[in-house]
Amino acid sequence: MLQGKTALVTGSTSGIGLGIAKALARQGANIVMNGFGDADGPRAQILEAGRAHGVKTGYHGADMSRPAEIEAMMRYAADEFGRVDILVNNAGIQHVASIQDFPVERWDAIIAINLSSAFHTTRLALPAMLKADWGRIINIASVHGLVASACKSAYVAAKHGIVGLTKVTALETAPTGVTCNAICPGWVLTPLVQKQVDAKAQERGVSNDEAKKLLLGEKEPSMHFTTPEQLGELAVFFCSAAGDNVRGVAWNMDGGWAAQ
Questions:
Q1: pLDDT of amino acid 193
Q2: Catalytic residue among 81, 107, 155, 257, which?
């Protein structure tokens, strides 16, 4: 379905980003990876997912808090693959503290990586998408783009901002073949969330499994984690012809969290 298209997925060396990259590769899209840590293992998984279509991969280790590095990554993608047809803004970090105790440098880093980076990639990807009259921008927000939780001020502010940026991008591209939508997951068992599970287990003196139940029970009525694979399939839908007129939505996949 996506053969000949190129998808750039930020934060795609693990977790949600890797799940989405593999789902798009299974549909034939070439993948430009980005993220910290080992890239070879994730690259092998993406190549295996897209083996039937002979997909190609590239990698750029841009620090998503630095606009100049984001610009270099977008140039790399254009030079290697022609243009970015599908942009998935997924890179994100987290810090938990009350507002009065929140370290200023952590606030700045979260806003830069979770929000400003999506503006920079979008502004750089749009000209080629509009020229081709086809493109997909998928912003990975969070259920925290729709509702709040205590002690997550920077993350909630950034994710609400991502939902707003999604709506503006969708309106500006509405008459064209370019769409922009946001995915708002609830709890997904990524390395980021596993750290919160570990902390809760230690804090309460309970097993890891019990800590998972406690975490889910606080917010998610389904009592199930969403998987990166499920999020990847939603991204594939947005890229399909069935998604042509889905514009500016914040689609929550959150086990009923925001329905409460």
A1: 87
A2: 155
Active site residue 59: no
Q: Are residues 113 and 167 in the same domain?
A: yes
Q: Are residues 172 and 231 in the same domain?
A: yes
| One domain, residues 152 and 232 | yes
Average of per-residue pLDDT values in the chain: 97
- Tens of pLDDT, residue by residue over 161-195, are 999 999 999 999 999 999 999 999 999 998 778 98
Q: For the chain, what is the HEC assignment?
A: CCCCCEEEECCCCCHHHHHHHHHHHHCCCEEEECCCCCCHHHHHHHHHHCHHHCCCEEECCCCCCCHHHHHHHHHHHHHHHCCCCEEEECCCCCCCECHHHCCHHHHHHHHHHHHHHHHHHHHHHHHHHHHHCCEEEEEECCHHHCCCCCCEHHHHHHHHHHHHHHHHHHHHCCCCCEEEEEEEECCECCHHHHHHHHHHHHHHCCCHHHHHHHHHHHHCCCCCCECHHHHHHHHHHHHCHHHCCCCCCEEEECCCHHHC
Domain around 15: 6-186+227-259
User: What CATH number has the domain bearing residue 58?
Assistant: 3.40.50.720
pLDDT level of residue 219 (50, 70, 90 thresholds): very high
pLDDT tens per residue, range 104-138? 999 999 999 999 999 999 999 999 999 999 999 99
